[in-house]
Amino acid sequence: MQNLIDNFFSYTITGLTIGAVYALVALGYTLVYGVLRLINFAHSEVFMYGTFGALWVVMLLGGKPGGSVGQVIFWVVMMFVAAMAMSGLIAVILERVAYRPLRKRNAPPLIALISAIGASFVLAELMGLRSRVAGWVGLDDTLREYVRNSRNNAGLPSIISPQPIFSVGGYNVTNVDLIVIIGAIAIMVVLDQFVKRSRLGRGIRAVAMDPEAAALMGVNRDRVIQVTFLVGGVMAGAAAVFYMLKIGITRYDAGFILGVKAFTAAVLGGIGNLRGALLGGFILGLAENYGSAVVGSQWKDVVAFVLLVLILLVRPTGLLGESLGKARA
Amino acid sequence: MRSTLKFAVPLAVAALALGACGTKGGDTPAAGGSGGAAACQNFKIGMFGALTGPNANLGIYIQNGVNLALDDYNKKHADCKVTLENYDSQGDPTQAPALAKKAIDDKKVVGIVGPAFSGESKAADPAFNEAGLVTITPSATATKLSSNGWKTFFRALGNDDTQGPAAAKYIKDTVKSTKTFVIDDASEYGKGLADTVRKDLGSQVVGNDTIQQKQTDFSASVTKVTSSGADALFFGGYSPEAAPLIKQLRDGGWKGTFVVADGVKDQSFIDNAKDAAEGTIITCPCVPADVAPDFQKAYKAKYNEDPNTYSGEGYDAATILLDGIAAGKDRKTMLDFVKSYDKKGVTKQLKFDDKGESADIKVFAYKVEGGKIVGSGEIK
Q1: 3-state class (DSSP) for residue B169
Q2: Under a CB-based contact definition with an 8 Å cutoff, are residues B205 and B231 in contact?
Q3: Sign of torsion over alpha carbons B212, B209, A280, A270
Q4: Mean of the pLDDT values across residues B188-213?
Q5: Closest CA in chain A for residue B243
Q6: What CATH fold (topology level) applies to the domain A2-148+171-326?
Q7: Nearest CA in chain B to A176
Q8: For residue A326, what pLDDT band results from cuts at 50, 70 and 90?
Q9: Nearest to A92, CA basis, from A225, A273, A205, A287
């Protein structure tokens, strides 16, 4: 306990950075739940592909520590482009292959859930077997650096070396911490405005409120669902970049635990609620760090899930508890 | 019945003829067959360990050493070659018992190099013990393995009880740390090592933490280490967690010395932690390549790379079994042969105590320098 009090700001700020990643991934769960009333359990893999997108583009561009300011900005921008494109693409393919055929046949939600879990395994294993996949198409020599040790960790060169910017209560806030927290909040403000004000955002809210009425009003439901998956994927891509900047190492199964945490964050804040995802992510990140400080790091996940259970006992719909449809401008 | 006899008679004659041709019959005991003298028995030795799957590297490094020993033997005994039988466990204890049975049922197998990991050793060794099939492990370091009373268990390297104190000694004497932080990964291996280090360092341990395998975010641990003012950190665990841990510690501005054990002695640690891995100290009961230059040269000639973790131990383990075969031992008599073995191998004096532990144990320190793991001397 004394340790937590002494290093309160350190635990708080590092908790917020990982919380920002949870929040961005949680948005994907919440958005899809909003329009489809379905938990997209393969979303964790969408995130994982984003981390590899970010990693590969840096390898491709020859990113290394100690680049000039211009280079570093270029690399980070390219990381966002690559990760968002990768995650967005995977999310759209996922919707196309794993969900749309079921929806066309009016399959019960449970079937979609199983389909999601199956898709999750397929995506993770494809990444885990990428060296063999490259071998099948005869590219294993060209892609050697990208596919070798495909079951092991893959590390990003630290293109931004963390520098202390200012100090809060004895903790040196680094440039990476600032980029992650401010970047995540900025992205969420943009998303919030997009859902509130744009035509497509209105479509998403309409489908979330009442799919049939929306269809009668001329909203193309399939298109809206596709856009929702795309937006969720892009958010996961952004999360993947922040994750790689902060953690720097990914693996074919890196999505699993993070996905469970992000899903928890979404439920904590109120699933289907965008601002709830943000709040839930930050609270979860903080709770994990405080819990680790007080009872030891091995209890980190226990603390997170006990918190979830307690909050759901008191507020079964989560902290903010609204659905996407009701979140009107 | 008659037809069997028809074949059996010429066969027996042929066997006798072959036996008579055998060049060095003299000192071998009669195997109870019709030959009387030693004919070529087509003996095999087994290689038990992960040859595919996520931990395959370690198994392949060992297998390379074993193959080198076989080449040496077969060059000298071209008239009666020994072959290698692979038992690929993928490092998975649940697959081990079935593979052990397969090896036991193959009567030509007179000894096993392996099992490579501690978990699979625990699962397979009881069967080997019952069947009286000798196993010499070149890499399993869990201390408890030797205290099960398995007669057939031999270990060609030091166990975790020797590595832990050596790591503690290194931290105290060479790193000259006065404030040490200790983290473990809650695994059988990592916690065992870390607890030994904790015990040996005593009051200079300024903080403890336990993480989980597969964890990637270590921000809470980073805060604990930096706020404790530790100048050295011992981590008991494997490279998948060691890499992100040290990376985040360096990102968090911690400047102390990172000390780990053989579970991290793996190039992938450096590939992933990159610059953050520089200066890491790795302890290992495995012998550096340059201790045995002849072996290093032969290995490099065959595989075009330096011997890796436990290649030399694999070579030594296989050599013991092959010497036994050369001396005319079979599965039954091999046990006593290995027990009384006392010769210099490429890694150390090969001699076992009553429990099957190596009598001559050395622990070495390695250091990460310029993106490579380089030897930095024995810890005495």
Answers
A1: helix
A2: no
A3: positive
A4: 90
A5: A249
A6: ABC transporter involved in vitamin B12 uptake, BtuC (1.10.3470)
A7: B251
A8: low
A9: A225
Beta strands in chain B (DSSP E): 44-49, 83-88, 109-113, 134-137, 153-155, 180-184, 205-210, 232-236, 257-260, 281-284, 343-344, 349-350, 363-369, 372-379
Burial A116-155 (b: 16+ CB within 10 A, else e): beebbeebbeebbbbbebbeeeeebeebeebbeebbbbbb
> Residue B350: phi, psi to the nearest 5?
-90, 105
Q: DSSP letters of B246-269?
A: HHHHHHTT--SEEEE-GGG-SHHH
Q: Domain coordinates of chain B in residue numbers?
A: 44-159+289-361, 161-284
Does residue B227 have a pLDDT over 60? yes
Is pLDDT above 90 for A92? yes
What CATH number has the domain spanning B161-284?
Answer: 3.40.50.2300
Predicted confidence (pLDDT) at residue B377 exceeds the cutoff of 60: yes
What distance in Å separates the CA atoms of residue A218 and residue A134, rounded to the nearest whole number?
44
Predicted pLDDT at A211: 86
pLDDT for A324: 52
Q: Does residue A309 have a pLDDT over 80? A: yes
Distance, CA of B224 to CA of A18 (rounded, Å): 17
- How far CA A286 is from CA of A18, B99, B160, B237, in Å, comes to 8, 48, 37, 26
pLDDT of residue B33: 39
**Which chain B residue lies closest to A4 (C-alpha atoms)?**
B224
In this structure, are residues B251 and B227 in contact, taking their beta carbons and an 8 Å threshold?
no
Packing angle, helices A221-246 and A69-94, rounded to 10 = 140
Looking at residue A295, its pLDDT comes to: 87
- Chain B residues with CB under 8 Å of A257 CB are 214-216
Say whether pLDDT at B99 is over 90: yes
- Check residues A135 and B33 and name the one with the higher pLDDT: A135
Of B217, B222, B268, the CB nearest to A152: B268
C-alpha distances in Å from residue A186, one per residue of A28, A180, A189, B317: 16, 10, 5, 61
Fold designation for B44-159+289-361: Rossmann fold (3.40.50)
CB-CB neighbors (< 8 A) of B271 in chain A = 149, 155
CA gap B140, A216 in Å, rounded? 68
Q: Is residue B163 scored above 50 in pLDDT?
A: yes
Taking an 8 Å cut-off on Cβ atoms, the answer to whether B247 and A155 are in contact is: yes
